Amino acid sequence: MKVFNTKLALWSIVALASLMLLLVLQLYFNQPSVYFNWKHSMVFYAGLGMLMISVSELAIGLVKKRSNYRVELRLVVMSTIFSLGAIEIALRFSGTLQTYSELRNGMYVPVCDNGSADIYRTWTPNQSHLLQGPEFSYSRTTNSLGFSDTHFELQPDSVVVIQTYGDSYTEGDGAPSDSSYPALLEQLFAETGAAVHLQNFGVCGNDPGFCFTQLRDLGISLHPDIIVLTYGTGDLMADVLSRGGLERFNSEGWKGREKPWFEWIYASSYVVRTVCSGMFGLHYNYLLRTQAEYENAMQELEPLWKGIFAGIAAVAQQHNIKILLVKRPDRGEIDSNAYQYDFSFFDAFVRSNPVFYHFDLLPFYRDSVGMTAQNTPLYFWALDGHHNSRGYHQMAKGIFRGIREYYTLEQLPKASSSQGNKSY
Question: Closest Cα partner for 307 from 246, 365, 216, 356?
Protein backbone atom coordinates (compact mmCIF):
# COMPACT_ATOMS: atom_id res chain seq x y z
CA MET A 1 0.00 0.00 0.00
CA LYS A 2 2.85 2.36 0.78
CA VAL A 3 4.36 1.83 -2.68
CA PHE A 4 0.98 2.43 -4.29
CA ASN A 5 0.55 5.75 -2.47
CA THR A 6 4.00 6.85 -3.56
CA LYS A 7 3.23 6.10 -7.20
CA LEU A 8 -0.13 7.85 -6.91
CA ALA A 9 1.51 10.96 -5.46
CA LEU A 10 4.21 10.89 -8.14
CA TRP A 11 1.76 10.67 -11.03
CA SER A 12 -0.43 13.35 -9.42
CA ILE A 13 2.58 15.68 -9.40
CA VAL A 14 3.33 14.85 -13.04
CA ALA A 15 -0.30 15.53 -14.00
CA LEU A 16 -0.27 18.84 -12.16
CA ALA A 17 3.05 19.82 -13.74
CA SER A 18 1.68 18.98 -17.20
CA LEU A 19 -1.37 21.15 -16.62
CA MET A 20 0.83 23.98 -15.40
CA LEU A 21 3.04 23.64 -18.50
CA LEU A 22 0.03 23.89 -20.81
CA LEU A 23 -1.36 26.81 -18.82
CA VAL A 24 1.92 28.71 -19.08
CA LEU A 25 1.94 28.07 -22.83
CA GLN A 26 -1.62 29.38 -23.14
CA LEU A 27 -0.84 32.51 -21.11
CA TYR A 28 2.30 33.12 -23.16
CA PHE A 29 0.35 32.93 -26.42
CA ASN A 30 -2.15 35.52 -25.20
CA GLN A 31 0.55 38.13 -24.66
CA PRO A 32 0.72 40.93 -27.26
CA SER A 33 2.95 40.35 -30.29
CA VAL A 34 3.74 36.72 -29.41
CA TYR A 35 4.18 34.27 -32.27
CA PHE A 36 4.37 30.46 -32.09
CA ASN A 37 6.87 28.19 -33.84
CA TRP A 38 7.77 24.50 -33.80
CA LYS A 39 9.45 24.81 -30.39
CA HIS A 40 6.17 25.82 -28.79
CA SER A 41 4.51 22.86 -30.50
CA MET A 42 7.07 20.55 -28.90
CA VAL A 43 6.24 22.02 -25.49
CA PHE A 44 2.54 21.52 -26.19
CA TYR A 45 2.95 17.88 -27.17
CA ALA A 46 5.31 17.22 -24.25
CA GLY A 47 2.74 18.59 -21.82
CA LEU A 48 -0.11 16.76 -23.52
CA GLY A 49 1.82 13.47 -23.59
CA MET A 50 2.81 13.68 -19.93
CA LEU A 51 -0.75 14.55 -18.99
CA MET A 52 -2.15 11.55 -20.86
CA ILE A 53 0.37 9.16 -19.30
CA SER A 54 -0.09 10.49 -15.77
CA VAL A 55 -3.88 10.41 -15.98
CA SER A 56 -3.80 6.83 -17.26
CA GLU A 57 -1.45 5.80 -14.44
CA LEU A 58 -3.72 7.48 -11.91
CA ALA A 59 -6.64 5.56 -13.34
CA ILE A 60 -4.69 2.31 -13.08
CA GLY A 61 -3.83 3.05 -9.47
CA LEU A 62 -7.36 4.01 -8.50
CA VAL A 63 -9.21 1.20 -10.26
CA LYS A 64 -8.59 -2.34 -9.07
CA LYS A 65 -8.66 -4.45 -12.20
CA ARG A 66 -6.84 -7.43 -13.59
CA SER A 67 -3.26 -6.93 -14.69
CA ASN A 68 -4.26 -7.28 -18.37
CA TYR A 69 -6.37 -4.14 -18.01
CA ARG A 70 -3.33 -2.16 -16.95
CA VAL A 71 -1.27 -3.42 -19.87
CA GLU A 72 -4.07 -2.71 -22.33
CA LEU A 73 -4.61 0.82 -21.03
CA ARG A 74 -0.92 1.62 -21.18
CA LEU A 75 -0.76 0.24 -24.70
CA VAL A 76 -3.72 2.37 -25.82
CA VAL A 77 -2.23 5.53 -24.32
CA MET A 78 1.24 4.99 -25.76
CA SER A 79 -0.20 4.06 -29.16
CA THR A 80 -2.32 7.21 -29.15
CA ILE A 81 0.68 9.39 -28.29
CA PHE A 82 2.89 7.89 -30.99
CA SER A 83 0.07 8.03 -33.56
CA LEU A 84 -0.58 11.70 -32.86
CA GLY A 85 3.13 12.41 -33.16
CA ALA A 86 3.41 10.57 -36.48
CA ILE A 87 0.35 12.30 -37.93
CA GLU A 88 1.61 15.69 -36.72
CA ILE A 89 4.99 15.19 -38.38
CA ALA A 90 3.37 14.01 -41.62
CA LEU A 91 1.02 17.03 -41.74
CA ARG A 92 3.85 19.44 -41.09
CA PHE A 93 6.02 17.99 -43.83
CA SER A 94 3.10 18.02 -46.27
CA GLY A 95 2.42 21.70 -45.56
CA THR A 96 -1.28 21.00 -45.04
CA LEU A 97 -2.99 23.94 -43.29
CA GLN A 98 0.29 25.84 -43.05
CA THR A 99 -0.32 29.57 -42.68
CA TYR A 100 1.32 32.22 -44.85
CA SER A 101 3.41 33.52 -41.94
CA GLU A 102 4.71 30.01 -41.23
CA LEU A 103 5.65 29.57 -44.87
CA ARG A 104 7.41 32.92 -44.95
CA ASN A 105 8.99 33.22 -41.49
CA GLY A 106 8.37 29.91 -39.73
CA MET A 107 6.13 31.63 -37.18
CA TYR A 108 2.42 31.33 -36.49
CA VAL A 109 0.85 34.81 -36.33
CA PRO A 110 -2.45 35.01 -34.37
CA VAL A 111 -5.55 35.74 -36.43
CA CYS A 112 -6.25 38.84 -34.32
CA ASP A 113 -3.73 41.50 -33.38
CA ASN A 114 -4.10 42.43 -29.70
CA GLY A 115 -2.93 46.01 -30.22
CA SER A 116 -0.28 48.25 -28.70
CA ALA A 117 0.45 51.80 -27.60
CA ASP A 118 1.77 52.70 -31.09
CA ILE A 119 -1.18 54.13 -33.01
CA TYR A 120 1.01 54.71 -36.08
CA ARG A 121 2.36 51.14 -36.36
CA THR A 122 5.74 52.16 -37.75
CA TRP A 123 9.14 50.50 -37.66
CA THR A 124 11.71 51.55 -35.06
CA PRO A 125 13.08 54.94 -36.20
CA ASN A 126 16.61 55.19 -37.59
CA GLN A 127 17.12 51.44 -37.63
CA SER A 128 17.65 48.74 -40.25
CA HIS A 129 15.41 45.73 -40.77
CA LEU A 130 15.03 42.94 -43.31
CA LEU A 131 12.12 42.24 -45.60
CA GLN A 132 12.65 38.56 -46.19
CA GLY A 133 10.74 35.56 -47.39
CA PRO A 134 11.61 32.04 -48.55
CA GLU A 135 12.97 33.41 -51.85
CA PHE A 136 14.48 36.81 -51.01
CA SER A 137 15.98 39.07 -48.37
CA TYR A 138 16.20 42.85 -48.78
CA SER A 139 17.30 45.42 -46.21
CA ARG A 140 15.57 48.65 -45.31
CA THR A 141 16.69 51.62 -43.22
CA THR A 142 14.05 53.75 -41.55
CA ASN A 143 13.97 57.52 -41.17
CA SER A 144 13.27 59.49 -38.00
CA LEU A 145 9.53 58.71 -38.23
CA GLY A 146 10.02 54.97 -38.68
CA PHE A 147 9.26 54.66 -42.41
CA SER A 148 11.47 52.93 -44.98
CA ASP A 149 12.57 56.06 -46.81
CA THR A 150 15.07 58.87 -46.56
CA HIS A 151 14.44 61.63 -44.04
CA PHE A 152 11.20 63.48 -44.75
CA GLU A 153 11.64 67.22 -45.25
CA LEU A 154 9.37 70.10 -46.15
CA GLN A 155 9.57 70.92 -49.84
CA PRO A 156 9.36 74.33 -51.55
CA ASP A 157 6.04 75.31 -53.15
CA SER A 158 7.48 74.64 -56.60
CA VAL A 159 7.70 70.92 -55.80
CA VAL A 160 4.64 68.66 -55.91
CA VAL A 161 4.68 66.35 -52.89
CA ILE A 162 3.07 62.94 -53.32
CA GLN A 163 2.76 60.72 -50.26
CA THR A 164 2.12 57.00 -50.67
CA TYR A 165 0.24 55.05 -48.00
CA GLY A 166 -0.38 51.34 -47.81
CA ASP A 167 0.99 47.99 -46.73
CA SER A 168 3.87 45.77 -47.85
CA TYR A 169 3.17 46.51 -51.52
CA THR A 170 3.80 50.19 -50.80
CA GLU A 171 6.87 49.65 -48.65
CA GLY A 172 8.15 47.41 -51.44
CA ASP A 173 8.33 43.96 -49.84
CA GLY A 174 9.96 41.54 -52.27
CA ALA A 175 12.32 43.98 -53.97
CA PRO A 176 15.29 46.29 -53.24
CA SER A 177 14.42 49.71 -51.87
CA ASP A 178 15.05 51.38 -55.22
CA SER A 179 12.49 49.05 -56.81
CA SER A 180 9.58 49.89 -54.53
CA TYR A 181 6.73 51.37 -56.52
CA PRO A 182 7.08 54.85 -54.88
CA ALA A 183 10.78 54.98 -55.82
CA LEU A 184 9.98 53.91 -59.38
CA LEU A 185 7.06 56.33 -59.57
CA GLU A 186 9.35 59.21 -58.66
CA GLN A 187 11.68 58.14 -61.48
CA LEU A 188 8.79 58.17 -63.96
CA PHE A 189 7.94 61.75 -62.99
CA ALA A 190 11.61 62.74 -63.16
CA GLU A 191 11.73 61.49 -66.75
CA THR A 192 9.00 63.99 -67.65
CA GLY A 193 11.00 66.83 -66.11
CA ALA A 194 8.35 67.40 -63.44
CA ALA A 195 9.36 68.63 -59.99
CA VAL A 196 7.67 65.83 -58.04
CA HIS A 197 8.86 64.47 -54.68
CA LEU A 198 7.68 61.12 -53.29
CA GLN A 199 7.46 60.23 -49.59
CA ASN A 200 6.87 56.55 -48.82
CA PHE A 201 4.62 55.96 -45.78
CA GLY A 202 4.12 52.27 -46.56
CA VAL A 203 4.56 49.71 -43.76
CA CYS A 204 4.26 45.95 -44.09
CA GLY A 205 0.99 44.79 -42.55
CA ASN A 206 -0.61 48.24 -42.62
CA ASP A 207 -4.30 48.77 -43.28
CA PRO A 208 -6.27 51.97 -44.05
CA GLY A 209 -6.96 52.52 -40.33
CA PHE A 210 -3.27 53.10 -39.65
CA CYS A 211 -2.99 55.12 -42.85
CA PHE A 212 -5.55 57.47 -41.27
CA THR A 213 -3.48 58.09 -38.10
CA GLN A 214 -0.24 58.36 -40.08
CA LEU A 215 -1.75 60.95 -42.42
CA ARG A 216 -3.55 62.89 -39.70
CA ASP A 217 -0.65 63.18 -37.25
CA LEU A 218 2.49 62.77 -39.37
CA GLY A 219 1.92 63.21 -43.08
CA ILE A 220 -0.07 66.44 -42.93
CA SER A 221 2.81 68.29 -41.28
CA LEU A 222 4.80 67.79 -44.50
CA HIS A 223 2.11 69.51 -46.60
CA PRO A 224 1.40 66.89 -49.28
CA ASP A 225 -0.41 67.77 -52.48
CA ILE A 226 -1.56 64.27 -53.43
CA ILE A 227 -2.07 61.14 -51.38
CA VAL A 228 -1.86 57.74 -53.09
CA LEU A 229 -3.46 55.06 -50.93
CA THR A 230 -3.52 51.46 -52.13
CA TYR A 231 -5.94 48.89 -50.76
CA GLY A 232 -6.90 45.31 -51.50
CA THR A 233 -9.08 42.48 -50.32
CA GLY A 234 -6.58 41.53 -47.63
CA ASP A 235 -6.98 44.94 -46.00
CA LEU A 236 -10.70 44.38 -45.60
CA MET A 237 -10.99 40.61 -45.23
CA ALA A 238 -8.11 40.16 -42.79
CA ASP A 239 -6.60 43.34 -41.36
CA VAL A 240 -9.65 45.49 -40.65
CA LEU A 241 -11.69 42.42 -39.74
CA SER A 242 -9.18 41.48 -37.05
CA ARG A 243 -8.44 45.03 -35.87
CA GLY A 244 -11.69 46.91 -36.39
CA GLY A 245 -12.34 50.39 -37.75
CA LEU A 246 -11.38 53.72 -36.24
CA GLU A 247 -12.96 52.63 -32.95
CA ARG A 248 -9.80 50.58 -32.38
CA PHE A 249 -7.95 53.75 -31.34
CA ASN A 250 -8.16 55.02 -27.77
CA SER A 251 -6.21 57.15 -25.32
CA GLU A 252 -3.84 54.26 -24.55
CA GLY A 253 -3.06 53.32 -28.16
CA TRP A 254 -5.16 50.86 -30.10
CA LYS A 255 -6.95 47.63 -29.34
CA GLY A 256 -7.71 44.84 -31.81
CA ARG A 257 -10.28 42.06 -31.69
CA GLU A 258 -9.93 39.31 -29.10
CA LYS A 259 -8.24 36.08 -30.14
CA PRO A 260 -10.34 32.90 -30.16
CA TRP A 261 -9.81 31.18 -26.79
CA PHE A 262 -8.62 27.94 -28.39
CA GLU A 263 -6.19 29.48 -30.89
CA TRP A 264 -3.13 28.55 -28.85
CA ILE A 265 -4.05 24.88 -29.31
CA TYR A 266 -4.72 25.46 -33.02
CA ALA A 267 -1.34 27.17 -33.36
CA SER A 268 0.44 24.31 -31.60
CA SER A 269 -1.01 21.34 -33.47
CA TYR A 270 -1.59 20.57 -37.14
CA VAL A 271 -3.74 17.65 -36.00
CA VAL A 272 -6.05 20.08 -34.22
CA ARG A 273 -6.11 22.28 -37.34
CA THR A 274 -7.26 19.31 -39.40
CA VAL A 275 -10.04 18.54 -36.93
CA CYS A 276 -11.13 22.20 -36.78
CA SER A 277 -11.23 22.41 -40.56
CA GLY A 278 -12.76 19.02 -41.33
CA MET A 279 -15.28 18.68 -38.51
CA PHE A 280 -16.18 22.26 -37.61
CA GLY A 281 -15.35 24.25 -40.76
CA LEU A 282 -13.07 26.63 -38.86
CA HIS A 283 -10.31 28.09 -41.02
CA TYR A 284 -7.36 30.39 -40.31
CA ASN A 285 -8.24 32.62 -43.26
CA TYR A 286 -11.74 33.02 -41.80
CA LEU A 287 -10.22 34.07 -38.45
CA LEU A 288 -11.12 30.64 -37.04
CA ARG A 289 -14.79 31.10 -37.86
CA THR A 290 -17.11 29.10 -40.03
CA GLN A 291 -17.74 30.42 -43.51
CA ALA A 292 -21.26 31.57 -42.53
CA GLU A 293 -19.95 33.41 -39.46
CA TYR A 294 -17.22 34.97 -41.55
CA GLU A 295 -19.62 36.21 -44.23
CA ASN A 296 -21.91 37.76 -41.60
CA ALA A 297 -18.93 39.49 -40.00
CA MET A 298 -17.87 40.89 -43.36
CA GLN A 299 -21.27 42.49 -43.93
CA GLU A 300 -21.13 44.07 -40.48
CA LEU A 301 -17.66 45.35 -41.32
CA GLU A 302 -18.62 47.37 -44.39
CA PRO A 303 -19.79 50.47 -42.43
CA LEU A 304 -16.54 50.42 -40.41
CA TRP A 305 -14.53 50.27 -43.64
CA LYS A 306 -16.36 53.28 -45.06
CA GLY A 307 -15.93 55.07 -41.74
CA ILE A 308 -12.15 54.79 -42.02
CA PHE A 309 -12.15 56.38 -45.47
CA ALA A 310 -14.61 59.04 -44.34
CA GLY A 311 -12.04 60.00 -41.69
CA ILE A 312 -9.28 60.10 -44.31
CA ALA A 313 -11.47 62.22 -46.58
CA ALA A 314 -12.19 64.70 -43.77
CA VAL A 315 -8.47 65.21 -43.12
CA ALA A 316 -7.76 65.65 -46.83
CA GLN A 317 -10.59 68.14 -47.35
CA GLN A 318 -9.42 70.19 -44.38
CA HIS A 319 -5.99 70.56 -45.97
CA ASN A 320 -7.04 70.84 -49.63
CA ILE A 321 -5.48 67.52 -50.66
CA LYS A 322 -6.67 65.14 -53.34
CA ILE A 323 -6.48 61.40 -52.82
CA LEU A 324 -5.95 58.75 -55.45
CA LEU A 325 -7.32 55.44 -54.17
CA VAL A 326 -5.71 52.51 -55.94
CA LYS A 327 -7.41 49.12 -55.81
CA ARG A 328 -4.66 46.51 -55.98
CA PRO A 329 -5.24 42.86 -56.91
CA ASP A 330 -3.35 39.91 -55.49
CA ARG A 331 -1.84 37.34 -57.81
CA GLY A 332 -4.81 34.97 -57.54
CA GLU A 333 -7.19 37.80 -58.41
CA ILE A 334 -5.21 38.54 -61.56
CA ASP A 335 -5.31 34.84 -62.44
CA SER A 336 -9.11 34.76 -62.06
CA ASN A 337 -9.59 38.32 -63.38
CA ALA A 338 -11.88 39.12 -60.43
CA TYR A 339 -11.56 40.41 -56.90
CA GLN A 340 -12.26 37.99 -54.09
CA TYR A 341 -14.59 40.45 -52.37
CA ASP A 342 -17.29 42.56 -53.98
CA PHE A 343 -16.26 46.18 -53.38
CA SER A 344 -19.36 47.65 -55.03
CA PHE A 345 -20.53 48.95 -51.65
CA PHE A 346 -17.32 50.98 -51.45
CA ASP A 347 -17.22 52.05 -55.10
CA ALA A 348 -20.48 53.98 -54.65
CA PHE A 349 -19.10 55.65 -51.53
CA VAL A 350 -15.93 56.72 -53.37
CA ARG A 351 -17.89 58.19 -56.29
CA SER A 352 -19.97 60.27 -53.88
CA ASN A 353 -16.93 61.91 -52.26
CA PRO A 354 -15.20 64.61 -54.37
CA VAL A 355 -11.88 64.30 -52.53
CA PHE A 356 -11.36 60.81 -53.96
CA TYR A 357 -10.19 59.70 -57.36
CA HIS A 358 -10.05 56.00 -58.08
CA PHE A 359 -7.83 53.77 -60.17
CA ASP A 360 -8.18 50.00 -60.49
CA LEU A 361 -4.92 48.16 -61.18
CA LEU A 362 -6.63 44.91 -62.23
CA PRO A 363 -7.75 46.12 -65.69
CA PHE A 364 -4.37 47.79 -66.16
CA TYR A 365 -2.51 44.59 -65.30
CA ARG A 366 -4.72 42.46 -67.53
CA ASP A 367 -5.23 44.76 -70.52
CA SER A 368 -2.21 47.06 -70.65
CA VAL A 369 0.51 44.83 -69.21
CA GLY A 370 -0.98 41.54 -70.39
CA MET A 371 -0.79 39.72 -67.06
CA THR A 372 -2.63 36.40 -67.13
CA ALA A 373 -2.63 33.21 -65.12
CA GLN A 374 0.06 31.94 -67.45
CA ASN A 375 2.59 34.72 -66.92
CA THR A 376 1.95 36.12 -63.40
CA PRO A 377 5.01 34.14 -62.16
CA LEU A 378 7.07 36.71 -64.07
CA TYR A 379 5.78 39.47 -61.77
CA PHE A 380 5.26 37.73 -58.41
CA TRP A 381 7.39 35.56 -56.15
CA ALA A 382 6.12 31.99 -56.44
CA LEU A 383 5.99 31.12 -52.73
CA ASP A 384 5.84 34.51 -51.04
CA GLY A 385 3.24 36.04 -53.35
CA HIS A 386 4.53 39.62 -53.36
CA HIS A 387 5.65 41.47 -56.46
CA ASN A 388 9.23 41.10 -57.56
CA SER A 389 11.07 44.09 -59.05
CA ARG A 390 9.47 43.52 -62.43
CA GLY A 391 6.03 43.53 -60.88
CA TYR A 392 6.68 46.75 -58.98
CA HIS A 393 7.76 48.41 -62.23
CA GLN A 394 4.33 47.63 -63.67
CA MET A 395 2.60 48.77 -60.49
CA ALA A 396 4.44 52.10 -60.68
CA LYS A 397 3.44 52.52 -64.33
CA GLY A 398 -0.19 51.86 -63.50
CA ILE A 399 -0.29 54.36 -60.64
CA PHE A 400 1.59 56.87 -62.80
CA ARG A 401 -1.20 56.51 -65.36
CA GLY A 402 -3.79 56.86 -62.61
CA ILE A 403 -2.34 60.17 -61.45
CA ARG A 404 -2.03 61.48 -64.98
CA GLU A 405 -5.65 60.56 -65.74
CA TYR A 406 -6.83 63.07 -63.17
CA TYR A 407 -4.12 65.74 -63.25
CA THR A 408 -1.89 67.32 -65.84
CA LEU A 409 1.42 68.48 -64.43
CA GLU A 410 0.20 72.06 -64.72
CA GLN A 411 -3.02 71.29 -62.85
CA LEU A 412 -1.67 69.32 -59.93
CA PRO A 413 -3.39 70.58 -56.77
CA LYS A 414 -1.33 72.68 -54.40
CA ALA A 415 -1.59 72.85 -50.64
CA SER A 416 -3.73 75.69 -49.33
CA SER A 417 -2.00 78.98 -48.67
CA SER A 418 -3.02 78.70 -45.00
CA GLN A 419 -0.44 75.95 -44.64
CA GLY A 420 2.41 78.35 -45.31
CA ASN A 421 5.36 77.99 -47.62
CA LYS A 422 7.13 74.67 -47.93
CA SER A 423 10.65 75.69 -47.02
CA TYR A 424 13.55 73.66 -45.70
Answer: 246
CA distance 181 to 397: 9
pLDDT digits (tens, 9 = 90+) for 324-376: 999 999 999 999 999 999 999 999 999 999 999 999 999 999 999 999 999 99
- Length of the chain as a residue count: 424
Q: What is the DSSP letter of 366?
A: I
Instruction: Give the residue from 96, 107, 103 showing the smallest Cα distance to 277.
Output: 96
Distance, CA of 331 to CA of 372 (rounded, Å): 9
Do residues 205 and 168 touch, judged by C-beta distance below 8 A? yes
pLDDT digits (tens, 9 = 90+) for 236-259: 999 999 999 999 999 999 999 988
What's residue 284's pLDDT?
Answer: 94
pLDDT band at 29 (very low <50, low <70, confident <90, very high): very high
| Model confidence band, residue 415 (pLDDT cutoffs 50, 70, 90) | very low
* SS3 state at 226: strand
Domain boundary assignment for the chain: 2-94, 115-415
Q: What is the CA radius of gyration of the chain?
A: 26
Residue 70 reports pLDDT greater than 80: no
* Long-range contacts of 386-393, Cβ-Cβ distance < 8 Å, separation of 24 or more: 386/133, 386/168, 386/169, 386/173, 386/174, 387/169, 387/174, 387/175, 388/136, 388/174, 388/175, 389/175, 389/176, 389/179, 391/174, 392/172, 392/174, 392/175, 392/179, 392/180, 392/181, 392/184, 393/179, 393/184
- Taking residues 278-291, what's their average pLDDT? 93
DSSP E strand boundaries for 221-267: 226-231, 249-250, 253-255
Instruction: Give the number of other Cβ atoms within 10 Å of residue 351's Cβ.
Output: 10
Residue ranges of alpha helices (H) inside 143-228 are 168-171, 181-191, 208-217
CATH topology of domain 115-415: Rossmann fold (3.40.50)
Cβ contact 207:169 at 8 Å: no
Q: Which residues contact 253 (CB under 8 A, 6 or more apart)?
A: 115, 116, 117, 118, 119
User: pTM here?
Assistant: 0.90
